[in-house]
Write a structure and sequence with these properties.
This protein is mainly β. The protein has a single domain, classed as Deoxyuridine 5'-Triphosphate Nucleotidohydrolase, Chain A (Distorted Sandwich), CATH 2.70.40. The protein has 1 helix and 11 strands. The protein is globular and about 55 Å long.
Length: 141
């Protein structure tokens, strides 16, 4: 499968796999950004747009090192196949220290995955399931 990516700025880096076989393509910061401690930053520019094929979705996920070592996590991580604008990223800094992204730094990763559309049907009753309506902590944790 091909993923068409357009550079909107000559400084932009194309998404890339760090290692063959990786699931996620790394997305890079176009400019320098500071994410303040305990705050989120929305609108972090990548300088790219992409054409995700119909029937697929781009799901944005944390870089494990950024999350584990610096508390940087992804917010607003669904890119629909019909979107053709610049990928603007949103991250949360859950740590107590400001975090600096330099231009060209990896920010998050995007997985291109199948996305099936469903027909929504209203019903008065749902089929039964072992879990049923039990919610948070239903497995004992």
């Amino acid at each position: 499968m091909e993923l068409q990516v357009k550079k909107l700025d000559p400084r932009a880096k194309l998404p890339s796999y760090a290692i063959p076989g990786d699931a996620g393509l790394d997305l890079y910061a176009l400019e320098d950004y500071i994410v303040s401690a305990g705050k989120y930053l929305s609108g972090l520019r990548t300088g790219i747009a992409m054409a995700i094929p119909v029937g697929y979705v781009g799901l944005c996920w944390d870089k494990s090192g950024l999350a584990a070592k610096h508390g940087i996590t992804v917010l607003a991580g669904v890119i629909d196949s019909g979107y053709r604008g610049e990928l603007l990223l949103t991250v949360l800094n859950s740590s107590d220290k400001d975090y600096h992204f330099a231009a060209g730094d990896k920010v998050m990763q995007i997985l291109i995955q199948p996305a099936q559309q469903v027909e929504v049907i209203e019903t008065k009753e749902l089929s039964s399931a072992e879990r049923g309506p039990r919610n948070f902590g239903s497995t004992g944790k």
